[in-house]
What does this fold into?
Amino acid sequence: MAKVQTLERVRYFARQLMTAEDMRAEQDYFVERLRRHNRILHGWGIICGLQVLPDATAEQPWRVKVCPGSAVATTGDEIEVPRPVWFDLARPPDSTEPDCVPCPCPPGPPLASGDEGAATTYLAIRYLCRPARPVRSGQSNCGCGDDACETSRWRDDYELGLLTKLEGPYATEWAEDEQQWLKRLREALKKASSVIGLPNRTVCPPIDYPWVILATVNADLSAPPPPVVLGATPQANLTPLLGPGSGADAQRRPLLRVEDLVKLIGLP
It folds into this structure.
């Protein structure tokens, strides 16, 4: 029988020789425990903020603004956007860019025109851990690309991207499993007098899918947005595609806090 891999942390003892590997193991243990805690106990989705608002200009007719907010991915990673950030839907970041600080990355080439015209894409965000604060690790001068230079910190960061299809927890089969469990739970709650005996979720395996969708865009991004009226501003042209009632929130998944649930069921 194969042994299941579990988390390990360093056991300290007198006169122990500590190495960088031991220090990393200590960090990895608590990082993975926090991810597991978020994933299993709280779930995943958008906690607050992260609204996508039209903010087009004449030069960037597909530019949007992502508001500050927080989310948790299905991997358990916490995603924090501390300040507004702008993103050009027609020129998503170049995935070949080695490292772009701060987010978002420099824009890539314009999207090619599609034969089918309007298509559905998804503006999404994911957690990134970036190396930061380079320091000299030897006697040599610390220069760009010098092996004697090491980064001394890991920085929590994020990346915005444009997805072309629904995968991972957004796939149809995942949604159907959740709907079936919610249906069983609703039926059991009508008859239950306590939490004992209520159906629980099936096992929550880690999902290697880091993206959280913020907005759905149904448009041909290779062409300018269609004008609403003659002489309309760039932002007005974009509003019908991303504003209220446009369907842009179709794939946004909120992560409800305990406080929110208490208010929903009417407890004081």
